[in-house]
Amino acid sequence: MIELNISCPNVKQGGAAFGTSCDMAAEVVRQVRKATSKPLVVKLSPNVTSITDIAKAVEDAGADAVSLINTLLGMRIDINTRRPILRNNVGGMSGPAVFPLAVRMVWQVANAVKIPVIGMGGVSSGRDAVELMMAGASAVQVGAAIFTDPYAPVRIVDEINEFLDSKNISSVRDIIGTVQPW
Question: For the chain, which domains are there?
């Protein structure tokens, strides 16, 4: 499987440009699809006007799944030097603060495409993972939580199983896309 990151904000003139345009995103996916028959997961940027339009474009271009969300653009300034802390001036912000945005975007995309959605963005507990799955994610990735807890993925799986057991749910598949909007 290949995860094609068309959304990385951490490089000058980088991948973020590909992930913010339906046409460019689709073209990158078409070119990669020509080069491989491996399953292709396209990692989407939250730094767009309509993430569902991008998701549909990459689905139409041959993506087998999408993963979202990548980091949000952020900036910090060293007040003593009056310079950005990052040499690139801006960079990707992740962690628990982005989680509600990830849930919203996973829910929107899962309702707009037929391919699987892999959710990520601030997952730090089994409860977070369950929430993303209820929003429509078929799988969940854990990133920033590993920096403070290298065993976070193992703990999160245990917490998911505890939740399922407490609700007498026999399979994690039974919670995917089960959110009931008002």
Answer: 2-175 (3.20.20.70)
